[in-house]
Amino acid sequence: MAKILVIDDYPPMRDILQVLLPTGGHEVTTAADGPEGLLLAGSKPFDLALIDVDLPGADGISVCKILRDSPDTRHMRVLMMTGRPGREVDARSRLAGAGAVMAKPFSGRDLLAEITRFAGTATAGHHGDEA
Q1: What is the distance between the alpha carbons of residues 101 and 18, in angstroms, rounded to a whole number?
Q2: pLDDT digit string (tens) for 76-117?
Q3: Beta-bridge partners for 53
Q4: Any bridge partners for residue 81, and if so which?
Q5: DSSP label of 41
Q6: At 31, phi and psi to the nearest 5?
Q7: Distances (CA, A) of 54 to 80, 81, 89, 123
Q8: How many CB atoms lie within 10 A of CB 111?
Q9: CA dihedral defined by 7, 11, 15, 17, rounded to 10 degrees?
Q10: How many Å apart are CA 112 and CA 55, to the nearest integer?
Q11: Under 8 Å CB-to-CB from 48, ≥6 apart: which residues?
Q12: CB atoms closer than 10 angstroms to residue 95
C-alpha cells in the first residue's frame, strides 16, 4: 500500500482517483492546486505524488521541482499526469525530477500498473475503469 498525494485542479479527476486508488490498496489525499499540494506534502509523509502538469497557483512541473529540492519531500516519487502529452512536457517533467509521465485519459488498470511498477506496491483487486 502506498500513501499517495494527488494534486489535480479538475474535481472529477480527484473524485475518480479517490475511488480508484483505494481499490489497489492505496491511501489517497487530494489537493486542488500546487500551493495546497505543497502544504499537504510537507504535513505528512507520502510515498508517491500524482501531479497534473497544468495547475493553478504553481504548475505541476514547478511543484515537482520544489518537492525534489526539499529535504522533507525529496524521497517522494513523482508521477506527472498531462492532457497535453509530448516530448517537451515529458522532458520538462523528468528534468524537474518526475520519474514518469502519464497521458490523460488513462485507464484505471494502466494507472494502477504504473503505480505498482513505479512505487513497488500491490494493486490487486482492480478491474480497469477509465480515469
Answers
A1: 20
A2: 999 999 998 889 999 999 999 999 999 999 999 999 999 988
A3: none
A4: 52, 102
A5: H
A6: -135, 150
A7: 10, 9, 10, 27
A8: 25
A9: -30
A10: 22
A11: 2, 3, 4, 5, 76, 77, 78, 79, 115, 118, 119
A12: 11
Looking up cell 500546487, which residue turns up?
34
DSSP characters over 63-123: HHHHHHHSTTTTTSEEEEEESS-SHHHHHHHHHHT-SEEEESS-BHHHHHHHHHHHH----
Q: How far apart are the first and last CA of the chain?
A: 20
Q: Which residue type, as a one-letter code, is found at position 52?
A: D
pTM of this structure: 0.88
Side-chain-side CA neighbours of residue 4 (13 Å)? 31
C-alpha cell at position 104: 490523460
Largest CA distance in the chain: 37
